[in-house]
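Sample entry (306 residues):
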Amino acid sequence: MLNKTNSRILFFTLFVLLILFPTSIMAQTKTDSTELNKYVQVYQQTFNTRDAAALSRYFTEDADVVVGNLLEAKGRQAVEKWWNSYFAKQEPGRRGTFTVNSLRKITDDVALINLLSVTGGKDTLGAELRTRKARGTWILHHLNDEWFITSICMMPVESDSIVLEASIETAESLQPHIRAFVDMFEDAFNSHNPSKVSALFRNDADIIVRNLPLIQGKQGIQNMWRAYFSKPRNYRALFIIDEIRSITNDVVQLNLTVTGAIPGTENKLQPLRQTSANWILVHEADGWRIAALRVLPGKEDRIIRR
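Predicted structure, serialized as tokens:
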């Protein structure tokens, strides 16, 4: 039987475990959220200086930037060159704001941020510049007690229009080896089975397809695939890996090209749809799972800004 002193010790221990420990976890989560939101605001301040060299220092040495259907920039030097080119084409008075829509930790040292980018301002005569919007997904890596951007994927917003185009030419250079997980996804996709495809996603995964709304969570993703496969899909999709980037031992980014022949008429060539995709994979106890999937407009598609 416990004496009075031991009872007090036990009570105090349970109090710490049941009350203080969850509170500390929530406090840590709040700290992470505050820290990452502040990071975005500091990035915004640097962005508005139009200093490409200063902006590139926010990125990892092997960072990857993909914007719409433009050519991607790979590596910090390429990112700096990309920003230099970007600012050179923009009106001197154009400035940007970055609003965080959601953020979450994928692992202890990798975070995913979904945000809205809006640029505008005034020209040299004081007239309002046309507002431009884009949805961004940032992957941040915590290195040496600092956060760095290791991947940016910028998508059209829902009010934009996408004119899907196709080509009858094939790209011989897009013939890399397809890794086991992508092969599994391809087989599941071409079986038109929403449950099989959805099983390859994490419970907290999210998807953005071109200018369509963000879908988050396993149930929403399964509903999306169920609706997608409810319509006839008389072609076989091929998922070709263009690049595999290891962010950490447990987090990998894939840049892919997804192809599928669009049904044509008799005696006519079938145009080939080529779409770019960006996946973030996380290695879990039972294998790789998709944490985020982005389908970008194809290089031949037209983005109509609203």
